[in-house]
Amino acid sequence: MTRLIGGVFVFVALCSLQGASDEMKAPVSAAAVKIPLGLQPIPWPKDNPYSPEKWDLGRALYYDTRLSADNTVSCASCHSPKMGFTDQMPNSAGILGQRGDRSAPTVINRAYALAQFWDGRAKSLEEQAVGPIQNPIEMGHTHPAVVEKLTSIAGYRAMFKAAFGSEEFDIAHVGKAIATFERTVLSGNAPYDKYKAGNKKALNASQVRGLDVFVNKAKCDQCHEGINFTLNAYHNLGVGATAANADGGRQKFSGKDEDWGAFKTPTLRDIANTAPYMHDGSLKTLEEVVDYYDKGGTPNKNLDERMKPLKLTAQDKKDLVEFMKSLSGEGWQNMTAPKQFPR
Predict the structure, then answer these.
(1) Choosing from 53, 138, 182, 330, which is the catalytic residue?
(2) Span 295-315, mean pLDDT?
(3) Which CATH number does 191-325 carry?
(4) Res 10 pLDDT > 70
(5) CATH homologous superfamily for the domain 2-182
(6) pTM, rounded to two decimals
(7) 33 falls in which pLDDT band (50, 70, 90)?
(8) Alpha helix (H) ranges present in 92-246?
(9) Contact (Cβ atoms closer than 8 angstroms) between residue 60 and residue 342
(10) Rounded to an integer, what distance in angstroms lies between the CA atom of residue 42 and that of residue 186?
């Protein structure tokens, strides 16, 4: 039979895992996941191919607060489907109400990203998925402790066996399962995609003008290009560069002076649904973002050479914002938590 999962119709397989309800069923095969207009097939890693059992498990783990030390925080706490798979906060709250120093990026279309996190310190989505578990500010657990906790839950043992062939598992299996689920969080079939596919009525006049500003006058596509509107590269825009305790960005990971203050260029897919903006969440609206770029960023020792005053008119700015709104697509809005979790 078919079923709507993640905003797309997919085939559903029946299973009888202990602790897994009928509501938790997943697509039969990777090929059954319909890719929205404008996107490419999901690039599944050779060492972590898709399986419906892994998707089931990853979905449960993604929403389960038991991955945190005090059972209060899940992946979805900072990457909520109700908020564009972010938390719409300048910085996210972890266990005991602790706050980090960066804004949670969206999970939408992470399948097409390369290195993960704002500074690219995780080389894969699998590696990123387990990072917050042992971060003392986020989930506050340890990898051995969370594996022990999950092993104590019979329903999870059954799900790991179904996904990986054994009830015995380690943190790498946890990461692979969560990453499998996250790769199906997609956004496409946006008005922009329909316009590019030939429907010239899909964008209004302001959005068409905004596309011209995006490409020709502001040249946003120098960094925001391709199907996911990002080069997956790192740039210093000057955001927060003059703060007393300025965030070193990618330099913290690479150790290179030229990486100081550089952060990953985010996707513009569904950008209208993932405020606030920038790594520190310091810009609240798309209008503020456009104004920031228009002035040429904030001067500092590593400011990207492409950050220069754009001299946009008020109409240019309005049209550019309207164009970015046309990148709001379909596919992620119907992602929901399981009605019950493994026991």
Answers:
(1) 138
(2) 97
(3) 1.10.760.10
(4) no
(5) Cytochrome c-like domain (1.10.760.10)
(6) 0.90
(7) confident
(8) 125-130, 143-151, 154-164, 171-182, 191-196, 205-212
(9) yes
(10) 9
